[in-house]
Structures are given as structure tokens and as C-alpha cells.
Design a protein that fits this description.
Length: 377
């Protein structure tokens, strides 16, 4: 059986967790959490990074930090995870979906301007498969209309756009360290703050709305409730696990890129040249992190048949998001601006192939050969 994903284990996770157990300091913002913050800030070149319990919570913090209120509108793609929309709906916002680009599955930057109204407060971009949206154009639009930009970089850790790491380009970036991601701690995330105006308040929101962090630094003689917030910081056990992965981030990235490129070189590019499938497109100015390798087939029926064929050959694959605008909640809390030319159509064609740290070369080659067998029977 070739699994779709096996969570990465690099070897030092248990050692680090044992250190936390022996220290008897399990709650958040301990030594390993601080090490993770420093690693992120140094590696990414960002001004401030804070671990969270998930990317969902990082997005919720972002919504609070940019003061989303009832009646505000948020522009984002419908091809995204529910958390991306939920974080802003929870603050009372209405979501405005725009169509995607079929070449990258990212928001179509040319359609954003048409969706802006007097109620628009922010643009939320989703860097699908670790491939960047066209950030220069989106930043220019945001400046013109005085809008915030939040990067949902859940899949984009260590990916870059014109040399800049995803999550560090806009006002706020949000990462996921869920077990399905390149670097993980089971469940986890981080918020990246690229403007100093967010620093102090982010620490308060993250610590249940209290100024406990200032108290621990000796800046106040006692801490109390000063703002809205929640318990957004992970335990030290999660941070200990994650830090071991951070220390091997470059080798994990290198391994995943090897497998990603192997798919291209094992027959799938030939299938694409013959018109059977389409392969991922990575613009020249983007450096991706090999988070996802997907193919696109002719239509939904062909995808269903291919999934079943691969399953019979002991290969597990997966499609991805169902467009949010077609969901029950999407119809209540959002609207789609313009035509759905690509979002639904492309989502029904996309199939993700097995890709994880530890996947053997011959497994990737067998996946590619089995797909070739399906189309060339």
C-alpha cells in the first residue's frame, strides 16, 4: 500500500519531548516555544513570529488584529479551506469570493479590483500548494484602496515569491503545522507579524486577552484582562516536537522537492504532452516547497475512475477543496462576485498524489506508471 501521507518524523522529536517532561514545564511560551520563534524570525527574515495552536487560530488572531467588524467585506478565493473564511465570519464579516486562475489555483489578481466596495476591509490570499499568488499586483491594489492583506500561507512554509518567503510579504501571514504539512507538530500554526503596530496586541490576544507577557517581562507589576482574546498558544510539548523539525527543515524540503521532480521525470510529463493530463505550473519567479503534487484530468467522472483504479492498485490519492461558495455555510455567509469560470471546474479535475518525507523513489515511480497504465490501457 502506498499511503497518501505519512506524517514526517525526523528523529529528535521524542528526545525534545522528554526534555519538556523532565522539566515539568508543559504550558506554552517555554524554552522550545522561544526557540521556534527565533528560528522562524531568523529563517524567514520576519519581524515577529508567534506559535499558535493552529493556522485556524492564527487567522482568527489576524481578523482581530485588523479590527474586522460586522458588515465588513473580505475578498478571498472560494477554493480554500473553511477556516480561511470562518476566521472573518466569526467577527461578523461577509465573504466575497472571486474566481481563481486555472494555472496556479490561486486567486485571480485581475478580478480583485472589480469586487471591492466601500465595505471591503481586507484581501485574504491563499498560496495554494505552496505556490505564491501574484503579490506585487495584489499589494498595489491594497495600497490603492487602503486595504489589509492577510496571507493564508498554511501550505507555504519555506516557499518564496521573488526571493521573499510567503507569509512575510503582506501585513500578516499565517502558517499551519498540521501533520499533513511539510513541517508539523501534529496540530499547530504560527502568525507572522510584518508591521510593528500589531506586535503588542498580538501577544495580548494570544494570551487570552491579558497582558501576561508584559508581566513576565517585568513591564507591569501584575497582569489582568485588557482586550479580547483566547488561548491561542500551544503547549511546550508541541513546540518541542516542532523545533526538531525546524532543525531539519532544509533536508525535509530537499527530499520533498526530489520526489516532486521525480513525478515529472517518471512518465507524467509524457502523459501531459499527449494531452491526457495537466501538471502543476510554478511561475519562474516562485520557489515552491513541494507541498503538493497534483495532476488535472479531463473531468469529475474521469477523476473518480482514476481514484478507483489507483485504489485497486493499492495507491491512495485525494482530491482537495470543495469550493466554499457551493457549501451550505458559503451560501449563508458569502457571495461569489462575477462568474465561476474556473473554481468549480478546476476543483473537480484536480487529484493529489502521494507526497511525504520518506516516500521511496520507486513508490513515486510506481504511482506514475500506474497512472500511465490507466490512460494507455
Amino acid at each position: 500500500m502506498i499511503n497518501f501521507n505519512i506524517p514526517c518524523m525526523i528523529g529528535a522529536e521524542a528526545h525534545n519531548i522528554r526534555k519538556v517532561i523532565l522539566s515539568k514545564n508543559f504550558s506554552g511560551d517555554g524554552n522550545f516555544t522561544k526557540k521556534c520563534h527565533k528560528w522562524l524570525e531568523k529563517k524567514l527574515g520576519c519581524k515577529k513570529a508567534l506559535l499558535t495552536t493552529s493556522c485556524t487560530h492564527a487567522l482568527e488572531m489576524a481578523a482581530i488584529l485588523v479590527n474586522i467588524k460586522k458588515g465588513d467585506e473580505i475578498i478571498m478565493p472560494s477554493y480554500a479551506f473553511a477556516s480561511t473564511a470562518n476566521a472573518f465570519v466569526l467577527r461578523g464579516a461577509r465573504i466575497v469570493f472571486v474566481d481563481i486562475r486555472p494555472d496556479t489555483m490561486n486567486i485571480d489578481e485581475k478580478l480583485i479590483g472589480q469586487a471591492i466596495t466601500s465595505k471591503t476591509k481586507a484581501i485574504v490570499v491563499v498560496h495554494y500548494a505552496g505556490v505564491s499568488c501574484e503579490m506585487d499586483t495584489i499589494i498595489a491594489i491594497a495600497k490603492k484602496y487602503n486595504l489589509f492583506i492577510i496571507e493564508d500561507a498554511a501550505q507555504g512554509v519555506m516557499s518564496r515569491y521573488k526571493g521573499k518567503y510567503l507569509g512575510t510579504i503582506a501585513d500578516i501571514g499565517c502558517y499551519s503545522f498540521h501533520e499533513t504539512k511539510n513541517l508539523h507538530c501534529g496540530e499547530g500554526g504560527a502568525i507572522v507579524l510584518n508591521k510593528e503596530q500589531f506586535f503588542d496586541r498580538a501577544e495580548i490576544i494570544r494570551e487570552k486577552g491579558t497582558n501576561k507577557t508584559q508581566f513576565l517581562r517585568g513591564l507591569v507589576d501584575k497582569y489582568t484582562w485588557v482586550d479580547i482574546g483566547s488561548s491561542y498558544l500551544p503547549s511546550e510539548l508541541n513546540a518541542a516536537f516542532l523545533y526538531s523539525q525546524f532543525q531539519h527543515a532544509n533536508s525535509i524540503l530537499k527530499y520533498r522537492l526530489k520526489i516532486w521532480n521525480l513525478y515529472y521525470d517518471s512518465g507524467l510529463s509524457e502523459l501531459a504532452a499527449k494531452g491526457f493530463i495537466e501538471l502543476p505550473n510554478v511561475p519562474k519567479h516562485c520557489d515552491h516547497n513541494a507541498h503538493i503534487f497534483y495532476i488535472k484530468v479531463k473531468n469529475l467522472r474521469e477523476r473518480i475512475n482514476l481514484i478507483e483504479f489507483l485504489k485497486r492498485n493499492n495507491i491512495v490519492t485525494a482530491f482537495h477543496y470543495l469550493p466554499l461558495h457551493s457549501s451550505l455555510a458559503g451560501k449563508i455567509f458569502a457571495r461569489f462576485h462575477g462568474d465561476d469560470k474556473w473554481t468549480t471546474r478546476e476543483s473537480e479535475r484536480l487529484l493529489r498524489l502521494p507526497l511525504f518525507y520518506g516516500l521511496k523513489d520507486y513508490h513515486a515511480q510506481r504511482v506514475a506508471k500506474t497512472i500511465t497504465d490507466f490512460f494507455c490501457r
